[in-house]
Design a protein that fits this description.
Hepadnavirus_pol/RT, about 425 residues, 11 helices, 3 domains, Alpha-Beta Plaits, 4-stranded antiparallel beta sheet, Reverse transcriptase domain-containing protein, DNA/RNA_pol_sf, HIV Type 1 Reverse Transcriptase, Chain A, domain 1, 18 strands, Rev_trsase/Diguanyl_cyclase
């Protein structure tokens, strides 16, 4: 099903102020890209839907919205007021999609409304969007760490987070009927990028890249961003990081991307970026205390389990995979969980936890009882030597060689005293290296 064309009178009001980015877009080396941004901001961005087969009827809304009706009504009222959603017109053909609420991390009582655009399976809006439009490379913690390493010990870091960033990006009127939702016997259409749309991350990242270009035009040289999280740095002897924050915050507001004040952090020598704490003075990265405590508690709850749903196993893998960014040798100890997760097709189906799977869980439980961090610093030349000294009941250490960048990364678990009869230069009998 293709949505009926909607008259220009129903075009988005333009969540981003038209013309504000114009002077910066004019200096883009790629003029076709500049035209894409300019047209998208003024008329709305296409979501990439291209399907000749009809979309199937969606099932009802998720229980989370039925359990929190006041939250949904408040959300829809606010979005109508901001013109980021609209009521469907009389006789307008709209694809109604299920909606649900997901609690916002670290914000008790706050929720994010999600459109399930992947329902029904095989005949959904997302099925009509080419997977290529969801494929992109994100900035990573590793990039931030490498930049801080090059800036040297005591480097300044800062970050900011855009407020309701997706909802600032307008959707083209012809695509709005694809983004329908029903509540209180009324049908609404999204005018801005919704959470749950396959192409939304790529569309938003392109717009955020334009914002980063504007920052560079204003003299901010050292920055990266992951979606709406922007990260800045400078050497300890420079005020560039301070200046970057002084320029970036008002610039974002001027260009239609209000900054969340409580998420402006720094300049500092230690901060959390993408869920990982980076410390330029101690030259290490580590899991934030709240994430570490949460993970320990989650693993304790898995201690006596003999079976779990596929969704539960996937969730645990996600948390441990993030922890493995700091505990690099932990990645092999996800294999049992991953193999178990693959057994069942449906998210709600239960699967027995194999011996290998339970062994992975026990390994992580014991490891996280120690203070775990990844030491970072400069090294004259590759190959990089990563040393793990993991002192458990018996204790072992290993050397892992890897041709990467000229940086020395050392993972420490607990203290750094080698077991008797070993040394940091020789490794341990029966070790992994």
């Amino acid at each position: 099903m293709r949505p009926d064309r909607v008259s220009n009178s129903r075009a988005t009001h333009g969540c981003l102020p038209p013309g504000a980015l114009g002077p910066y877009l004019a200096s883009l080396p790629n003029m076709s890209l500049a035209e894409y941004f300019s047209h998208g901001i003024s008329s709305g961005f296409r979501v990439g839907f291209d399907r000749s087969e009809p979309i199937g009827p969606a099932r009802g809304n998720f229980p989370s919205v039925q359990q929190n009706p006041l939250v949904v009504r408040g959300y829809l009222a606010a979005e109508l007021d901001q013109a980021t959603i609209r009521l469907a017109g009389p006789g307008e053909s709209v694809q109604v999609n299920p909606i649900g609420l997901i609690p916002k991390s670290g914000q008790p009582g706050k929720f994010r409304l999600i459109d399930d655009l992947s329902s029904p399976e095989g005949r959904s809006v997302n099925e009509g969007i080419d997977p290529v439009l969801s494929s992109l490379s994100y900035a990573s913690v590793d990039q931030a760490v490498a930049s801080v390493c090059l800036a040297g010990r005591g480097a300044w870091m800062a970050k900011l987070d855009l407020r309701s960033a997706y909802r600032r990006v307008p959707v083209h009127p012809d695509d709005q009927p694809l983004l329908g939702m029903a509540w209180d016997d009324r049908i609404f259409c999204d005018r801005a990028l919704p959470f749950g749309l396959r192409s939304a991350p790529k569309v938003f990242t392109a717009v955020a890249n334009a914002l980063a270009w504007a920052m560079q035009c204003e003299g901010i040289g050292d920055l990266i961003h992951y979606l709406d999280d922007f990260f800045f740095w400078s050497p300890a002897t420079s005020r560039d990081c301070h200046t970057a924050l002084e320029i970036a915050v008002p610039l974002c507001n001027k260009l239609g991307f209000p900054v969340a004040p409580h998420k402006v952090v720094g300049p500092a020598t230690s901060l959390i970026f993408l869920g990982t704490e980076i410390d330029s003075l101690r030259q290490e990265i580590r899991l934030p205390e709240d994430k570490l405590s949460f993970l320990k508690q989650a693993l304790r709850q898995w201690g006596d389990k003999r079976a779990a749903t596929k969704r539960e196993v996937q969730s645990l893998i996600g948390h441990l995979n993030h922890a493995a960014k700091v505990v690099r040798p932990g990645r092999p100890f996800l294999r049992g969980l991953i193999d178990t997760m693959k057994i069942q097709r449906r998210q709600h189906h239960r699967v027995r936890l194999s011996v290998a799977c339970r062994g992975d869980i026990v390994w992580w439980q014991r490891l996280l009882e120690w203070r775990v961090f990844l030491s970072i610093g400069s090294h004259p030349s590759p190959p990089v030597l990563r040393r793990l000294w993991a002192l458990g009941l018996r204790g072992f250490c290993c050397f892992i060689r890897e041709m990467v960048s000229p940086l020395l990364a050392t993972v420490f678990v607990g203290s750094v005293n080698c077991p008797q009869g070993t040394s940091p230069d020789r490794g341990c009998p029966g070790g992994l290296g």
